[in-house]
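Q: Give me the 3D complex with nicotinamide-adenine-dinucleotide.
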Amino acid sequence: MTTILNGKELAKKLRVKVKAEVEALTSNGERPPHLAAILVGEDGASKTYVNSKERDCEFVGFNSTVHRLPADTSEQDLLDLIQSINTNDDIDGLIVQLPLPKHMDSEKITEAINPEIDVDGFHTISVGKLTKGEDTFISATPFGIIMTLEDYGIDTVGKHCVVIGRSNIVGRPMSILMSRNGYPGNATVTICHSRTQNLKGFTLQADIVIAALGIPDFLKADMVKEGAVVIDVGITRVDADNPKGYILKGDVDYEAVKDKASAITPVPGGVGPMTRYGLLFNTLKSYKMKRGK
Ligand code: NAD
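A: Here is the predicted complex, encoded as structure tokens.
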């Protein structure tokens, strides 16, 4: 029997817990946690993500502010806005939705965020702390995956984990977390990427495969060992004849792989909802840290 790692249900359960915690924290009249988001331009997927983050905040009782800026906003205007949020004591978390328009330097923008409210965990200080195993904001997607493995009690100790993708926001932090001395973690990690030769040779040895490359249906059943745990991070919009005009596709050939896997995340309803939860968790963490809780 394959366990479906139902991120949608798990995130729902965890959101209810956050809501209760917010109610308790604000019962003495204190303001609730506050997440600020900046969206530049009209990218369809980014707009959808920001809207859902806004809805999540509303559900758990956070304040949220979304700054929707035109695509031709200058980099300096964006930096000025970030600076004003950085110094606003009423804000606990700030995210700048990526990708940014081409005329902006994403690295420079990410580094401009005050690490104390860097709830996406993309700042060099957050990444450095994560690498050293220090307490920090873990970027939302790797955090959501870790929470999923933990909640389902997936054994990671001494297992061979193959991560496909080495991006700064998913693959690389994921590989660090899986190899850390803790649970979930203590795995032996191989990180594969676009230059890896004989990738199938690696995935076939994996007890846990984390696919984060952004190529729909990339991981086929003949690339996976019987009984492996398969985490599908990919979300690609593929044209479809439906009212939205697209469907979401993961990096895993789900229908074929699920019969071989011992546990697997679906797309949608797997890593995506848990990523959204990760952001709520980090914002609440920031709020509590400011209050010494
Ligand atoms: P990215 O484009 O920054 O990185 C892709 C990585 O895949 C690169 O490191 C590259 O080396 C590797 N790669 C590309 N082709 C490969 C190949 N043929 N074989 C092996 N490796 C290959 O992407 P990203 O930001 O890490 O995102 C990856 C996917 O995850 C995308 O589909 C993205 O939309 C999705 N994503 C989902 C969530 C979520 O909440 N579910 C969050 C973040 C990203």
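A quick observation: The domain at 29-114 is CATH 3.40.50.10860 (Rossmann fold).
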